[in-house]
Amino acid sequence: LLGQILDRWFESEPLKATLATDAVIGAMASPHTPGSGYVLLHHVMGQLEGRRGAWGYVAGGMGALSQAIASAAAAWGAHIFTEKAVRHVLLGRDGWAQGVVLQDGTEVRSKLVLSNASPQITFLELSPQEQLPKDFVQQIRQVDTRSPVTKINVAVDRLPSFLAAPNARDGQPLPHHQCSIHLNCEGTHLLHQAFTEATHGHPSSRPMIELCIPSVLDPGLAPRGCHVVSLFTQYTPSVLAGGRPWDKQARDAYADTVFDCIEAYAPGFKASVVGRDILTPPDLERIFGLPGGNIFHGGMSLDQLYFARPTPSYSGYRSPIPGLYLCGSGAHPGGGVMGAAGRNAAQVALEDFRRL
């Protein structure tokens, strides 16, 4: 349990609760859930520019990272097509993957096919079901994809001023504006309470909030004097109690709860808001193809990691369809902005390609 680990090393409850957020981020779990300690490890085991456990902002926004990867691939001769939805994987008579068929009927031929879509989309929607073992399909259907995350993007006309560290008269950013700000994290019991509400189908009445202001470090993201605020919040169930839909009323009600919480820490925040974009778990699934809205393509619980990701029989990036590989977050080692799954899958695919 994460709580036992934190109790062993720390005494400050606010510090323990703040660290605990990385043990439950993106996970339908509480700090008291068995295995939550691994999720914390997963988020601190990496490094950035030689600093172990460090995180950073991407200049130009997260899309700039995708553009950098695309530029590197293009420099090696890759052709990149966007806004081209794939209908299904194309198989040859021998059952090998030979490319993909696009929604407009265009066939793109290839000796190998790598999918960074979720296992659910890759194998349940894009692959011919008759070519997959029934037990494999059943295992993919049983992957736990529950997600507690609602992402809220906010545009504000001034920096938030927190009661704990009010802004200076000149309105210039202070050190804490350049960091990840954790709210409603004074105690691990608050995280557990928020989790419990979601397990009963109710959005948390006091959500866990991670607030970042990337425009402080990257002014080009917003007009002069204005800022963009990124809110990563939990816990919101994918399916609301009583089967109620995540309609506009439900979205706005939850966002209002989040904004009320921020207002308690930073009076005037609500008055500074000029626009907001609310992405609940169903929205994350619909827009980004995340199963259940899960940012990791499946829970990071101990039964869905390592040799069991996405299934025990196919945890090495290969699939039941020869020539089709899984290279996204649904493969080992899971989610996170690191590219490890893609790198590992590429090595396996190249090994097979040399044999061909």
UniProtKB/TrEMBL annotation:
<keyword id="KW-0285">Flavoprotein</keyword>
<dbReference type="GO" id="GO:0005759">
    <property type="term" value="C:mitochondrial matrix"/>
</dbReference>
<comment type="subunit">
    <text>Interacts with COX5B; this interaction may contribute to localize PYROXD2 to the inner face of the inner mitochondrial membrane.</text>
</comment>
<comment type="similarity">
    <text>Belongs to the carotenoid/retinoid oxidoreductase family.</text>
</comment>
<keyword id="KW-0274">FAD</keyword>
<dbReference type="InterPro" id="IPR002937">
    <property type="entry name" value="Amino_oxidase"/>
</dbReference>
<dbReference type="InterPro" id="IPR036188">
    <property type="entry name" value="FAD/NAD-bd_sf"/>
</dbReference>
<protein>
    <recommendedName>
        <fullName>Pyridine nucleotide-disulfide oxidoreductase domain-containing protein 2</fullName>
    </recommendedName>
</protein>
<feature type="domain" description="Amine oxidase">
    <location>
        <begin position="36"/>
        <end position="170"/>
    </location>
</feature>
<dbReference type="GO" id="GO:0016491">
    <property type="term" value="F:oxidoreductase activity"/>
</dbReference>
<comment type="function">
    <text>Probable oxidoreductase that may play a role as regulator of mitochondrial function.</text>
</comment>
<dbReference type="Pfam" id="PF01593">
    <property type="entry name" value="Amino_oxidase"/>
</dbReference>
